[in-house]
What we know:
It is built from 15 helices and 12 strands. The protein has helices spanning about 15-25, 50-60, 65-75, 85-100, 110-120, 130-145, 150-160, 215-225, 240-250, 265-270, 290-300, 310-315, 330-345, 355-360, 360-380, and strands spanning about 1-5, 30-35, 80, 105-110, 145-150, 170, 200-205, 230-235, 255-260, 275, 305, 325. Strands 2-1-3-4-5-6 form a 6-stranded parallel beta sheet, sandwiched between helices. It has a 6-stranded parallel beta sheet with strand order 9-8-7-10-11-12, with helices on both faces. Strand 3 (about 80), helix 4 and strand 4 (about 105-110) form a beta-alpha-beta unit. Helix 1 (about 15-25) packs across helix 15. The radius of gyration is 21 Å and the shape is globular.
Amino acid sequence: MRILxxxxxxxxxxxxxxxxxxxxxxxxxVDQCHADVWQxxxxxxxxxGWRQRMTVAVRWLASYPALAWRLARAxxxxxxxxxxxxxxxxxxxxPIARLRRIPLVWDMFMSLYDTVVEDRQLxxxxxxxxxxxxxxxxxxxxxxxxxxxxxxAHARRVEELFGLARGQAEAVxxxxxxxHFPMMAGVxxxxxxxxxxxxxxxxxxxxxxxLHGIETIVQAARMTRDDQIDWHLIGTGQEARxxxxxxxxxxxxRLHWDRWVDYPQLHRHIAAADLCLGIFxxxxxxxxxxxxxxxxxxxxxxxxxxxxxxxxxxLLRDNPPCVRLVPPADAYALAAAxxxxxxxxxxxxxxxxxxxxxxxxxxIGRQCVELLQRRLPQEA
Length: 380
């Protein structure tokens, strides 16, 4: 199978890198035709000011004439794959793909409308920006021969949002770069194997967005302020100022907050934690996704607490040891889960061993290849 990965896909996101590595390791020849317009933009929601926005927009739009020319002249692949974020990529590539009779596959990964409007509420649902984004994304969806997201629950969510037929959207898990997140021993540094350390180290890292439920984590930390529990937050973003205000009103001496840690250093912080946290938001999108951090924590064999959801149960349906699923936006349930773990003996071997073979790049590549083999003959 020969795939042309085309467009302005964001190689700064693990999703694209894992999918590309997985396809190549599965024997797929992947040619790339790429314009890196997202360099130095780690969080698109944090692009502020007209100057910064114009710089990104001009760089983005200016890339399309050359990309379109290269697509028109490229050797014919079995399919064109559009990576995230791909709305404009889809609209530019669709007429060329149709003229050349090449199936167009979109790794939508997530809906920008759902993210910006419904989940983060950065713009009004009834405003012009929201309506335009909805129409553009719906148009792009209908130009795809195959579209997939990260979970079946997310696929159903997008079908419902945009009025697609059930089963039209597919799913390929996010997975994890296992080379960056190696399986670690089941106890952190300084812990007594088989025993209970004096202090429990709890870690959350990620963007401070509503989906993550940072407020719930801080409330749980406040409820356990008299226990021997250290909370470590890593990240910043949309919710940062509100969290700052919460902590200013009632400081938590056992909560430490680092605004940024470089991606290659994340595994050190995960390894040093006794317990890692996933997401706790209560939105429909939060119920539909499994974020990068969950795959990374599982890959490293660390205990995990995250919100219960249809998406989480796709991966954790067998209720594996060292995982606790709690109701969304429920600080009491989160605090209780953390305290329960604090009372237990730490595992002396890595957790989640059976899951590791299902979440690495090779497994994700196989998922994608199986999807393409199943759908391409019908679409070509």
